[in-house]
Write a structure and sequence with these properties.
Layout: E1 2-9, H1 13-24, E2 30-32, E3 35-41, E4 44-50, E5 57-65, H2 68-80, E6 85-93, E7 96-104, E8 110-119, E9 138-139, E10 164-165
Parallel strand pairs: 1-4, 5-8
Antiparallel strand pairs: 1-5, 2-3, 3-4, 6-7, 7-8, 9-10
Length: 172
């Protein structure tokens, strides 16, 4: 089964946690100094907020899978439809280790497809930008080949089609 994912950038984490906790009638399942996440069952959603963005608003949307086979099926559908796809493989971001890839819709909105492998105690492992920000969301406006950024993501495998890694401070 899949879970819808929404990631927002917020200016005031505490105020936003209070608002969304009341809106969802539930406390976050994870809270860090720069991040909070709700794993809701009704509706089935992974709703995350962070202060790591350049401006408030929607950073990206996504689908989280319960098992690796679902993720492989989503990737195969994207590849067969000739969608621009960035395969990150196993990576760390947003206090989690995940297997993921990205596609972009016709409006340029990044969609993250991922399967969470486990939690980690830091925003991202092995990255220079952990303290200053994150940079996991692909740049949906660039149509050049992807180059590795210094944060959250490994160097892309192969040559992605029509998508580049955003050098700014965004993440899942």
């Amino acid at each position: 089964m899949k879970r819808f994912h929404v990631h927002l950038h917020v200016e005031d984490l505490g105020k936003s946690i209070g608002f969304y906790s009341k809106l969802f009638a539930a406390e976050p399942t994870r809270v860090e100094g720069d991040y909070a996440k709700w794993m809701l069952e009704d509706p089935r959603i992974n709703f995350a907020i962070s202060t790591r963005g350049s401006r408030p608003g929607i950073d990206h949307l996504g689908l989280q899978t319960d098992d690796p086979a679902e993720l492989a099926e989503m990737k195969a559908r994207a590849e067969s439809a000739d969608m621009a796809l960035l395969d990150e493989g196993e990576t760390t971001c947003c206090y989690a280790r995940s297997e993921k890839h990205w596609v972009t819709d016709p409006q340029g909105i990044a969609w993250e497809h991922f399967h969470t492998l486990g939690n980690i105690p830091v925003f991202g492992e092995g990255s220079k930008g952990d303290a200053a920000g994150a940079c996991c969301t692909p740049d949906t406006t660039a149509l050049a080949t992807a180059e590795s950024s210094a944060c959250c993501t490994p160097a892309p495998r192969g040559k992605p089609v029509g998508i580049a890694v955003k050098p700014s401070n965004t993440c899942c």
